[in-house]
Amino acid sequence: MKQDVIVAQEVLNTPRFVLRPLRVSDAGLLTLYASDRRVAEQTTAIPHPLPPGTCEAFVARAMAPERQEHVWAMDASGFGGSELLGVISLTQMDRNQSEIGYWVAPAMWNTGLASQAVRTLVAANPLSNATIFASVFQDNPASARVLTNAGFDYLGDAEAYSVARGAKVATWTYLKRLP
Predict the structure, then answer these.
(1) What digits encode the pLDDT tens for the residues 120-144?
(2) Of 74, 87, 162, 90, whose CA–CA distance to 125 is shortest?
(3) For residue 164, which of 88, 76, 65, 50 has the smallest C-alpha distance?
(4) Read out DSSP for 86-125?
């Protein structure tokens, strides 16, 4: 019998769900949601169509002890909902900084879920960052509102390559300094 390695990563509580580390059993719902073109096209890294094994590899990287990206599942199973509604992550950078990234299952869009996840993760500051950066595609103003509502300041325009779109896409970049 193979046992999963338990990675010490903080569980964060919100009134509607918990942010918890990913686990192997999340791969199925991750695949379901990440396979949706609408989700993939709002990220830089999710390909569309989604190749087999992509989410299993993502979970394995997220559970690895020596990782640069710390990923939490938005889990509402303790509140009568699904055990995976989306994900949120912090990717470590140099100089005590991280980049935050998130996506939510389409059925949960416009419910405040992403806003609550971002506010909770930033308030907890589990990596003890001095600064958190973020960027969103300019054709996704809802995601930009999530950041501004969480106290992020607009830095400027840039562009990032979207694997699903197969093209560079204009972005807005944001910054949050932490105490």
Answers:
(1) 999 999 999 999 999 999 999 999 9
(2) 90
(3) 50
(4) EEEEEEE-STTEEEEEEEE-GGGTTSSHHHHHHHHHHHH-
Any idea what the Cα angle at residue 47 is, between residues 46 and 52, rounded to 5°?
100
**Which domains does the chain show, CATH number per domain?**
12-177 (3.40.630.30)
Instruction: Name the residue among 27, 95, 94 with its Cα closest to residue 60.
Output: 27
The pair of structure tokens assigned to 48 is 């569309």
Q: Which two tokens stand for residue 90?
A: 């912090």
Average pLDDT of the segment spanning 146-171: 98
Q: Return d(Cα 80, Cα 83) in angstroms, integer.
A: 9
Q: Report the alpha-carbon distance of residue 143 to residue 172 in Å, rounded.
A: 10
